[in-house]
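This part of the workshop introduces the protein records we will be handling. The question running through the whole workshop is how a given chain folds. To make this concrete, we reproduce a full record directly below:
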Amino acid sequence: MNWSPEQQKLAEKYRSPNEIPVEERRYKCHTCHFVVDETPCPHCGEASLEVMCPLDHCDCHHSIVESIEYCPLCGHAVCPECGSHDVVQISRVTGYLQDVAGWNAGKQQELKDRVRYSVV
């Protein structure tokens, strides 16, 4: 991600969004999804608002990207193409336990065909 000079200065000025003076803060309301300048949220009354990272612009139009980067100020995942903090990070997870009764016949046959080893 290529941060602008203004964004670089913000990242150097503050070590975290919580260090931003109250009068300069913006907040994300996860109840009504507005970005607001005060707490509680003037739209829905939610009192538990997230202090918004000043490097976040909340506008990502990329549906899928192959990699992820992290904000130098708040450490949250960001879109590597535009820097938006509103991304969902997903990963393939293996090694979990699952009931195989719901598997289709083909998947159950794969399970039966697996070669099992024991370490002695």
Notes: The first strand starts at residue 27 and ends at 28.
